Amino acid sequence: MNNSFRFGLTLSVMLIFTACVEQKHELADNYFLAGEYEKAIAEYDKVLQIKPRNVVALYNRARAYEELGIEAKAVEGFNQVLKLDPDHVQARLSLGNIRFRNGDYEGALYQYNKIVKKYPQNSEALMFRGKAYAKLGKVQEALQDYNNAIRTNAQNGQAYLYRGILRANTKRIKAACADFRKALQLGVEEAQLGLDKYCK
C-alpha cells in the first residue's frame, strides 16, 4: 500500500468519523432545544464516547441534567468543563446559579467573582453577583454591581428588575418604580409585580 493511498484512506476515515460526531451532536442539540433532555443526554453520551474532551457536549449534557433537576450530575459536568477550560463563563455561571438556588450565597459569589475578575464587563455575571451580595445583606456592593451590569449592557432587563427590588427594599420607591418600568419595557414580565406593589 503506497503512502498516498494510505493518506487518502486515513483522511476518508477521519472525515466519516467527524461527520458522525457532528451528526450525533446536532441530534443531541435538537433534543435539548425541544426539551427532551433525557434523549439529549443519551446523544451527548455518544458524542463523548468518541470525543471525551468535547467541551461543548460536556457543557450541554450538564445543562440537560440541570434542566431535569439532577443537580449532582450537572455540577459534576460543569466541573469537568472547567477542568478543560477554566475560563468557561457559562459553566461558572451555571455552578454559581445552582449554589444560589440552594442558598449557598458565598459559594455562588465565589463563582461569579471568578468571572468578573477575568471579564469585568460581563453584565450577566455582575447582575448575578449583585443578587448574591443582596442575599448576604451587602446592599452597597449589590447596588454597585447592578449599576455596572446596566452600564455594561443597557438591555439587561433583569438587572433593572433586581435593582428595582433592592431600591424598593431600601425605601427608594421612586427610583425602584423607574427600574420596574424599564425592566417591563425590556420584556421582563415579573417587573409588573413590582409596579403593582409599589407604583400605583
Strand content: under 5%
Query: pLDDT below 50 for ≥5 consecutive residues: which ranges?
Result: 5-19
**SS class:** mainly alpha
Using the CA coordinates, give the radius of gyration. 22 Å
> Count of DSSP E strands?
0
Order of helices and strands: HHHHHHHHHHH
Question: Cα distance, first to last residue?
Answer: 84 Å
Shape assignment: elongated
Question: For the report, how would you describe the main beta sheet?
Answer: none
Query: Helix segment count?
Result: 11
Give the helix level as a range of percent: over 70%
Mean pLDDT: 90
Describe, in short, the structure shown:
The protein has 200 residues and is mostly helical. Helix content is 80%, strand content 0%.
Topology:
Layout: H1 3-33, H2 37-50, H3 55-67, H4 71-84, H5 89-101, H6 105-118, H7 123-135, H8 139-152, H9 157-169, H10 173-185, H11 191-198
Helix pairs in contact: 1-2, 2-3, 3-4, 4-5, 5-6, 5-7, 6-7, 7-8, 7-9, 8-9, 9-10, 10-11
Characterize the structure shown.
Helix 1 (3-33) runs antiparallel to helix 2 (37-50). The protein is an all-alpha fold and 200 residues long. Helix content is 80%, strand content 0%. The model is unreliable at 5-19 (pLDDT under 50). It is elongated. It is built from eleven helices and no strands. The relative contact order is 0.06. The protein starts with a helix and ends with a helix.
Characteristics of this structure?
about 200 residues; mainly alpha; 11 helices; about 0% strand; elongated
